[in-house]
């Protein structure tokens, strides 16, 4: 099959399920907290819809899955794939959440009491990651994914798709950078707990990255 006839590769970008802190709005970066019981059930239900032979996320089409080492992401990964053969996966700190530093565990209004006018999209996090550091880390992840996609499309190696199981701000930054937008435009993408984004390309060209879907089967309030 010629490279032009092969289906375009995709990236499935998945935010972990609900935690107590995602439920109440606390900034959760380094803190390693579990999914709620409801969060686990939501992921299990989603897995039956999304993951399996002939479904949107078909394990036989996955060449690899990158997973944040935080337990909320790692547990989400295992719940998604527990009813099928576990795909090849890599735990990587590159997929961790934005490091909130001094603002870890705080609500947005509590942060703004300390730093009026604060916006993570322009100010980053003191004691954590700056905007520039976050962008560099996400851009590195994107380069890794695109290399898998290039090898599939141009050299006929690997299978079609890649998956990342990660976090909210990470995903919003990732989507913005994937489509070559400035990082701060990630503020306009709402990524729900357990939401699945599909990233691919337009016009059968790896030079035209695109957002195909956002928050598939997420519980949107």
UniProtKB/TrEMBL annotation:
Pfam families for the chain: His_Phos_1 (PF00300)
Record-linked SUPFAM superfamilies: Phosphoglycerate mutase-like
Family matches, as InterPro entries: His_Pase_superF_clade-1 (IPR013078), His_PPase_superfam (IPR029033), PGM_Phosphatase (IPR050275)
Tree of life domain: Eukaryota
Protein name: Phosphoglycerate mutase
